[in-house]
Amino acid sequence: MRTETPQPIKLAEYRPPAYLVDEVHLTFRLEPNTTRVQARLSVRRNGEHAEPLVFNGERLKPVSVAVDGRVLAAGEHTIDAEFLTIPNLPAAFTLETEVEIDPENNKALEGLYMSGGRFCTQCEAEGFRKITFWPDRPDVLSKFTVRIEADRKFRHLLANGNLIERGELPGGRHFAVWNDPFLKPCYLFALVAGELDVLEDKLTTMSGRTVDLRIFVDPGMAGRATYAMDALKRSMLWDEQAYGREYDLDLFMIVAVRDFNFGAMENKGLNVFNSSLLLADPATATDLDYERIEAVVAHEYFHNWTGNRITCRDWFQLCLKEGLTVFREQGFCADMRGHAVGRIKAVKALRMRQFAEDQGPLAHPVRPNSYMKIDNFYTATIYEKGSEVIGMLKTLVGPDAFRKGMDLYFDRWDGHATTVEAFIECFAETSGQDLSDFFVWYEQAGTPRITVGGRYDETTRTLELTLTQTNPPTNGQETKRPVPIPVTVGLLDLEGRTLAFERDGQAVDETVIVLDQPEMKVTLTGVDAMPVISALRGFSAPVVMTTDAEPKERYVQLASDPDLFNRWEAGQDLAADLILSRAAGKPNEVGEERYAEAVGRALNDQASDEAFKALLLSLPAETDLALLRSPVDPAAIHDAREALRRRIALHLHDELRRLHTGLQDLGEFSPDAAGAGRRALRNAALDLLSATGRQEVADIASGHYHAALNMTDAIGGLNALMNIGGPAFEEALAHFFEKFQDEPLVIDKWFALQGRDPSELAIGRILGLTAHPAFDSRNPNRLRALVSSFANFNPARFHDPSGAGYRFLADQIIAVDRFNPMTAARLVDPLGGWKRLKPELGRLMKAELERIVAIEGLSKNVYELATRALN
Ligand code: B3K
Ligand code: ZN
Question: Which fold has domain 449-541?
Fold first, then answer.
């Protein structure tokens, strides 16, 4: 057991920094085990009083500390495991420090470390303190000049900003000096050194400046960066058009690294990416990879304004940059790949991750008010719900006031570290609205529940809508206030035609009702026929909605709702009801047939595109279904969902076969939305067919796999074979490994696929895979490929009645925590759901959490999440 309990940090206790650093010169003498870092800082007192200087510094071997050129004696300063403290300082002075660090043995992948024989850094949130002594907080903004010296075999020496000097040094070494003219917090610092290939391009910005674009990758891989480069250029132009934001340096660089704790990092002018989110070609990357690369390249680029030029005052404001940047990224992706499909995918992800978070012990507000390790708060709530909140803000103030509010925000706060309040104030000013109630969305955790019901009066042609909201308690927040919920509503007649109506005397097809009280009534007039209510169109708010709609009304929506989100949603609701009835032992076979038939009709709708149809074919995820009822019996949900899949597959067998044959890619591969949509629909058809378990489908899947001309189809074939199991699957799995064994990103997929194998026999194989020679828990991609895909996407086996799944996850968390706490902590989440499980499973899961918190020397990261999950 830990001896001291780590203390939380609180938003209410925010104090401005006692000292500011206006300028810094850093010199790195790079060596794998003994890198020297010299820092010369211009420091200025920030308050009235001469408080002692307390700078962060962890895992640094101090060499010297000097103030205004004078080396401090032992008694003039103290250095412990976390801080450098110096009392009695003047109001302004130069601080010089030198430390030694060991990048090669830094397996936490935070600070300066080595990946694939190259030096790289990761500083957000609090990694810079592992590089040098510094006030490691986002509200200290400084101008950085960085000199890097290294052996010439580290050919590229990169840092933020502009290259101002480079040259040779004696002893086979060389150097480069970089200057970043923009003020930045230390978390945006980056350095990379090594042998790399580079893909180069240029872009002319809106004011006519030429920007050099460079993407650095493993030698031989430059060809795989072309899609990322294309996405970068499209992002840069989009930000000019959509937000009037121009890039500000003459050079923009991205570097791909294989060992990275998460997706990518927006360091000023030098983004660092997990190679899985940068490298793609048709043979090794799926359409989903292409889609994610486009999204993440855009996201990190957009941070240049929302995050870098304007940053966060403190880490409680994380959503200020993350929620807003996700919102901008989603806008870009919708413009690139289609609004309806983009929205459906965003909501699927939100429900799967954020709604689950809200229902568990880790529920927290979009702006939390306390944490132990900020690394634990890079969550779906901060990111995805943070983006939803901005979407609602835009709906509430309208697109014009929204755009003006963004302009005002950029004008007012450029070059500063600020708060969510300051952001919202911009929109209050441009819209003239009082947004104080809106702010509750940032402060209150949990998913609001709303109901929408209607009473139609034929004689007066009026529809009286009754809307209610409740906000269930979450961990630490027992009572809640109502929030303003924009509910977009339209009406259809029973034939599926749009019904126009009047609201407050205005004739409209659609209206936004702002539900800001526990209950509200709204009367719509001029409603000429019995209406089907299409509410929460486009998922206008991140809430759970129930209505009194009957299946027949849902079927009208599934066939005809002009709001494609609600058309898809109607199908999901119908499917969820059928699956949950069957899981509760009350199968509705007539309903299941009817559903299969309706899906068949939707597939034949000439007007909708393939990507949308692929989404219609996929049933709600088991994890989403588990959120709808408790106690949860994951096996019953899995079996019921499979039963519905089988019924649809049998009912639509010929249609699915026809799709599978007709949609085969013949021409050249194109990663665009249309090509990806065709492949998605073809693979979704095969996936459904495989639910029949028939030998005939195994043959088709085997043919599909072996004929695949791209990774999307190869994985689609393998996946279908896995659903059926047997020798054809074993053969293809071995073939895949053999073929791609030298492609780490593809072998990650091989592990991930097996982690998701739901068959009863799979558990033994999955647990055994950690002993496979290709498994390496020090590489976060490989670790997550197996362990996260198993724990998050294989409910049937993760919740194996033996408890073996929980034990396996706990073992991995404990082992990885010894060297990489950030990544270990990101594995804890699936253990948070024990209270909602059926008791015999819940007990087994809880016992694993107890085992984890009892470990001696557990990191703060894992401790925080595991104790919250327990309490
Ligand atoms: N800002 C980074 C995330 C850093 C996570 C640190 N634990 C990537 C992003 O959201 O763009
Ligand atoms: Zn981000």
Answer: Immunoglobulin-like (2.60.40)
